Fold these 4 entries.
Entry 1:
Amino acid sequence: MLKRVVITGMGVVSPNGIGKTAFCRAILDGKSGVKTISRFDTSDLPVKIAGEISDQDFNELDWIEARERKHVSRCVPLAVAASRAWARAAAAVAAANAPIATSASIDSAMPGIEGSGDAMALAVAAAAGAGVDTSSAAGASTRATGLPLPGRARNAGSDRVSP
């Protein structure tokens, strides 16, 4: 017996479109999300382009509190935004059709990459009890603790949106 699967919603936060409509339009129009990197200095790097979601296109503080943001990877507010868009779309379909079961899939290509070096240096310093410069341009904790590490784990985004 064949089982039917119905996609009831899609929450997209990607370099070539934020939101299902913008993303699908970009795909249909053949629009690339690759552009000049804006989130960090590339002057010493051979590559100057990437598929990134710029700060101009996405305001993280619309999705996560400022006090929490310094402890988590950027993938967390991105995952929260995508999951809320999915939930709104899925709820509309579920209201019209009694679903038997629901499921969601959340993925991120390379979550937690930014600030990971700072976080690791702080954790090593804390473990060694060494006096190191713990100031950070990336916004990591200024105390030598392991606190920044969990928020930069591969599952940080899906962990935040799971019940």
Note: The chain has a mean pLDDT of 73.
Entry 2:
Amino acid sequence: MRALELVGFEGPASLQLGERPEQPPSPHEVRVRLRNMALNHLDVFITRGLPKRPLPAILGSDGAGVVDLLDQIAEVGIGACKVHIGAAQEVLHRTRHLFIRQQTAVINAMRGHLAEFGIVAPVGRHGVEELLNVVADPNDKRVPEIARACLSAFGAQLCRIKEQILEFDRLIRAWHRSNEMSMRLDEAPGVGPVLATAVVATVADPKSFRSGRNFSAWIGIVPKQHSSGGKNRLGNISKQGDRYLRGLFVTGALAVIRYAKIHGTKHRPWLTALLARRPTKVAAIALANKIARMVWAMMVKGERYKEPVALAA
């Protein structure tokens, strides 16, 4: 591995890059592959011999890097804790989310421009395909040629974005299959590969949260407290946490509710009672809160998902 070595005491000019053999981490140590490194004022003093060290010496106490076990970029020694191993995977999730937002923006732009010419299509994937067919048809005189050229550019951009999103999904599934904790979280209802890998990549140490409620509050899916005089008043959810994770948990909860409405809710009495007295989206927030607490418990205790008694019967 390459290292910045101090070979003399003539100031920063005595620094040079050298090669060092890679060493495995000792107990209670972590080896980090540095991406960026800076010299602080103490390092500058050392280059001037204050204090003197045996030469050659390796400097650079301020650094930023990646501990990534999947890609074997770094290794964790025995007893090491509070190590964020999913920095690269977190970048993958945030990039995929950005591309999805760009896809939505392109589709909305195409719908808006075509609506100016009286061309509308149903909401959903099939509606977008209808609009793309209209743009690609040169015999359709409802669209002027100048507008057709612009909309064709939108269509080409949309195809490229979709291909990139599919590639991101492939990378997420590959990492999901190689991560034991992500595979365990996938067993919980409403949790799929995308949510499982996002939680593992984002939450470096689940034990830093004292309870499942603290974890839910960090995500932002717990109600605000307006309690006074011994009377509990709960308001809307705070929305003050991780917006990306919150959206994934709510999406997973909506999938559970949709499945329950199609196949029946008799095996989920808690959800049945909730849907009977609350709107669907309000029930989805409550269910997302419940799922988040289950995920936290599975991560902290290292357990697999256990079906409730009502479900197992």
Note: The longest helix spans residues 145-178.
Entry 3:
Amino acid sequence: MKKSTFFSAVGLLVAGFLIAVCISMVRPNLIDLGPAPKSDIVAASEGERKGMFDDLVAAPSTKKSAPLAFDEDPVEYVKEMQRSTLRGLKGVNILVLGVGEEMAQYGITQQQIQIDVELRLRQAGIKIFPSNELSSLSDRGYLKVWAHIGKYPYSNLFPIYIRAELLQAVWLDRDLLTGCSAVTWCTQPGGAILPLNYLGQFREEVAGHISEFINDYLAANPKD
């Protein structure tokens, strides 16, 4: 009985090892994006930051966010709260991440996605700040587009992950001298596995996330 139990245990260990090997063989060849980006603490002296908020302290906004009602859809409430953070935004900087050089052989490049994003925003009348152009922290955002695409080895399958998020400079309500950049608006992350003949859908999926930003921006900033 003990001998049978011993061989059963050995069999389980061998089976576990074989499963681990199989998983490692089919692991998708995703692009290493490196460590998660850290929030950039606003680089300004205490005097400069104090001056930025003199008007805010002297004349605080009278429009407060209404508390969430029990019968209100929490998803729609969050969307409306995110949309309201776009009010008064003058433009954005853009950063596209996640498209590796190896995808060029399939007609997809990071520069191509960057151009797609910028074109859609310009067509909607949203100003794009060059990456080397400084502007007031209070009137622009930092639109980061995660357009991640990789390839499963020994196959023509491509896992994708897409998400757009806007970072803005924010300050603590309890301490207006303490600020950092934080995500104030984002899309619901989307993922899928595309076959080779459907790779064109990747750009369409990215465009859908950008359209969501454009719609919310225009709703928060209606033209006169």
Note: Residues 1-65 have pLDDT under 50 and may be disordered.
Entry 4:
Amino acid sequence: MQSRDTVVSVLSVFDERPASSVTGLALPPPGVQESCGEGSRNYRMARSTKSVTRVAGLFAVFVIASLFLVPPALAGDCPELVGRWPYGVADGVAVSGTFAYFGSGTVLIVADVSNAANPQVVTQVVLSGMVSDVAISGSYAYVAEWTGLRVIDISTPASAVEVGFLEIPGGFNWGVGVAVSGSYAYFVGAEAGLRVIDISTPANPTEVGSYPTPGQTYDVAVSGGYAFVADGTFGLRVIDVSTPASPNEVGFLNTPGDAMGVAVSGSYVYVADGEAGLRVIDVSTPTFPAEVASVDTTGSAGGVTLSGSYAYVSDHGNFPDNNALRVVDVSTPASPTEVGSVEDPWLSPGDVAVSGWNAYTFAYVMEGSGGLRTIDVSTPTSPFEVGFLDTPAWAWDVAVSGSYAYIANDHGGLRLVDVSTPASPFEVGYLDAGATFGVAVSGNYAYVVDCCAGLYVIDVSTPASPIEVGFVDTPGGGAGAWPSPAPMPTSQMTRPACW
């Protein structure tokens, strides 16, 4: 399933020389819109808004923002993308055997989770768009991302490679969810509705049918010739896909919340319905789906998956409270009961996957700020975290000085990236500087804003070894930084404790 609309940025490097003089990638990055007129050029890069819940911003705790950059008018061609530091928010997760597949910005990360307490990255596949969801079928991973559907050969997980791609055109059709059944992938994306894609030849996925749902689609599950679509404020849509080329809606149920996630087992569909919690719906008669029960999940339910007699719900509360993985006993669908939970302020309200072996069962939950958490749910009433794999977090701001880019990476700290070869940016240094939201650079110093504390002054004269040299507490926290010609002497700065 997918999570939906907070702020994500990846570092993109542009060459503003005429295209004829540039050798490198010519693909516009996610979120870039180009407008080139006669004799002048206007460029706008909007920070990606990838929903953690819905486009309207169900969760006010996350700031949804846009940054507009307008370079000088050019007489030549449009600037071209020549390189990108691709990591960002962690989203979308699927597990097959002892490997987990999940997104970090525009990267599909493959991790060995055979040791649940110490998951290890084995390879990464860089894609063009932001990863939203992952489905596994056989030797292939099907990735819903913002430009379409990617097919990744994972027959050898450590050597995963993209083998196929289908672009889903349109302004607001970015991929959000994907499910696979037989020779077809079912793709949903914002205003794209439901797309049915023939994947019998993985290297050549082909769209064969579509259905325009009335809302913004967020997730899809398929069973018995029907696709069950979580359609936001328009609830659950039941679409007959027995004839893939002619999908047709046969039933619907307007749920009381915002349908964000969906899972199906037998005659029941389970909908993660935002602030309305988990809804259990009887679809034994697909033309007349009927709700039979619900569970209040305290926060806002964003994702759901099923394993055995349990539903695992990712639930987003009011930061930093009530973000949780909730375990619900659905052995009697008409009487679901929450039996256990694990709370973590940084859990994503989106995706969760469950896999079990050797009598142990683990849930893999995305951490919104970056990473994969492994939860032992072998005893459903007492789930607990056993492992964590970190990935770079949200990128809120970037500054460039000389050959280096400085990225304010939320709880990922300050990241220093060498951009001397624009086509191949790579990280050279890192410093934990709280929850970094803004950065500016002057001379040998970077000035970094911590949203919950204040301003850090960091010596970056040796980019591989940045050092904090000063701190100023700002009473209201901070969100941006601009260097002063005469910064305060570090001897006058003190650093308070910060969570």
Note: The chain is about 0% helix and 50% strand.
